[in-house]
Amino acid sequence: MKIMKQLFFLTLITCGIPFKSMAQDNDIFPRGEKAANVHHVGNVWLNELSPADKVFSYSTAVATFDAGARLDWHSHPGGQILLITQGVGYYQERGQAKQIVRKGDVIKCQPGVEHWHGATPESGVTYVATSPAQNGKTVWLKRVTDEEYGSGASTTSPSASATTPEQEVLALSKDKWTWMADKNVDKLNDLFDDQSVFVHMGGSWGKAQELDVIRSGGIHYKKADVHEASVQIIGNTAIVLNRITLLAVVGGNEVTNPFIVTEVYTKENGKWKMGSLSFTRTMGPGNDQPRK
Ligand code: MN
Questions:
Q1: Mean per-residue pLDDT over the chain, rounded
Q2: How far is CA 190 from CA 17, 186, 233, in A?
Q3: Ligand 1 centre distance from Cα of residue 81 (Å)
Q4: Which fold has domain 2-26+164-290?
Q5: Where are the domains of the chain?
């Protein structure tokens, strides 16, 4: 167990550092100052590249959003153009469906149209915004609610906005916890490979029994608090390690346990399928590590 745990954290370290430095290398402009949380939630950096002046009556700024960060609803009296330079984000106009925007997309916000933009839950986003200034400043409106931010999740699930195989698998793993909590047997039936195996504290079994257990509520995976998740891809196989605290209902009783969960996925015909889900209860010190 200890070795596995070390392996787990080693994986996190080796995955984490290159990704961070890579993100910085890819920035075209310095991200500037972190903006105070007045008109947005989450972490946002703003760098005014070219403020409006008498000759050029529009400001040009670069905005960098951490995953999950988004602006409040607002409108621009003179409109705004967004050039997405990095990552994956959302853009939504009042009364319209939320759009996924990616590096290379150009968004024109028409003058006076209420809208919001920001990162997706899974990916940060960076854009250059050009805003004509002659008709007045941005009009800030209400906060984007969690419901608005998360709504349409069935069509724009985290896995839909993933950009790398690693992100794809981690997003799918996250979706899977939601489907298990919702007893969404249809989605799980599609996800589980016909040959898949499931290893629990009380025994191991195949796909049919796992689906039965979920459908009947024999085990209800009520809430998985995922503290850390990492993924290794080997050819067409992905191994996900999750460190979780699971609130489950087993035989009518609520139980909470810390687990390392190992998930194995294989890519078949362009689609990730789950080959194995295995719960290892963690022992000894470290069970009660503070959440990050
Ligand atoms: Mn805007």
A1: 85
A2: 34, 6, 21
A3: 8
A4: Nuclear Transport Factor 2; Chain: A, (3.10.450)
A5: 2-26+164-290, 33-154
117 CA → ligand 1 middle, Å: 6
pLDDT tens figures, 97-125: 888 898 888 899 999 999 999 999 989 99
Q: How far does the centroid of ligand 1 lie from the alpha carbon of residue 41, in Å?
A: 15
pLDDT tens digits, one per residue of 160-219: 556 688 888 999 999 999 999 999 999 999 999 999 999 998 899 999 999 999 999 888
* CA 242–ligand 1 middle distance (angstroms): 36
Other residues' Cβ atoms within 10 Å of the Cβ of residue 214: 21
Q: 79 alpha carbon to ligand 1 midpoint, in Å? A: 8
pLDDT class for 151, splitting at 50, 70, 90?
low
Quickly list H helices, 48-164. Answer: 146-150
pTM for the full model? Answer: 0.47
CATH of domain 33-154: 2.60.120.10
